[in-house]
What does this fold into?
Amino acid sequence: MKTRVFESHQAEEAAELIRQGKLLAIPTETVYGLGADGLNSKAVAKIFAAKGRPEDNPLILHIADGGWMKWYCRDLPPEAGRLAAAFWPGPLTLIVKRGDRVPDIVTAGLDTVGIRCPDHPVARAVISAAGVPIAAPSANRSGRPSPTTAAHVLEDMDGLIDGLIDGGPCTVGVESTILDLTCVPPRLLRPGGVALEALKEVLGEIVVDDGALRTLGEGETARAPGMKYRHYAPSAPVTVVRGDPDETAAYIALHAGSAAGILCFDEYVWTFDGYKVILFGSKADKHVQARRLFDALRAFDEAGVTEIWAQCPDDAGLGLAIANRLSKAAGFRVVEVPQ
Ligand code: TXA
Ligand code: MG
It folds into this structure.
């Protein structure tokens, strides 16, 4: 199969692929998604095949406008409307009771469905032109870091999908926050582009699911099935070092082998002379860190380093999502440096 690459102004032409039941990668503000007609089971089945995705891992439905939500769910709680008004379009996925029109394959047989209205003009133009919700996971091969550029998508998916529409680099860089509204109080299943603090301002109490913060043990069930899989992992082993940045830089300098790759805050570049260094952004700038994270993990793979050491921001704001993705890349091998 030849993968056709569309430019951002070709949303209507690209949407034709969705209408034909084919696979189209689309840009969103978080990461690129691998899209298909979310109401067409055969089309959605192709997503699982192309990604090598386990069939028990449900997909998010992407809608062009918050007003579409009611068509694909039932018994919507009042919180859904308040959250949609506050954060859509944007990097928030709401888990709600599934409506009759949503095929089994999208939800992996669950009674709930994830819905998100992305904040990207190209994504919304494609969904509007297709006239159907687009089911889309991140457009990486299963287990690889999520793609934040069209080039990343082609690295993983060239020849496996019908099309890709290039919307430039993603501005958020980590995936959406997933919030389950089918329980009381609502439960955070995956930290992401909308901060937990911002959700609490609208909702009050929110429970943070264990699966969002650590690896689940044998016999434990992940409420977001995708959170149980190893993810984002470069080939070389990753160690994440948490704590005061001065201390974590010193710790890494002491422990890293000579062929190590280092993901460090810009302020510490001088500490790692002679290493393969990738700059994470300034220690205070979590927006930049989020944007660079997945590209950095991919770049270390190409550089052929034997081990990777990463500094890590604190948990406030976007830091929770960044720390979560880094920890997953590290298989939760995390060192806490005493303050
Ligand atoms: O930012 C994003 O969310 C990106 C862009 C493309 O929108 N999408 C994305 O999709 O990250 P994916 O499939 O890579 O991750 C979706 C996560 C998975 O962990 C999946 O298990 C969970 O959402 N999920 C989907 N539907 C669910 C449901 N009904 N209940 C619980 N978890 C669900
Ligand atoms: Mg994914």
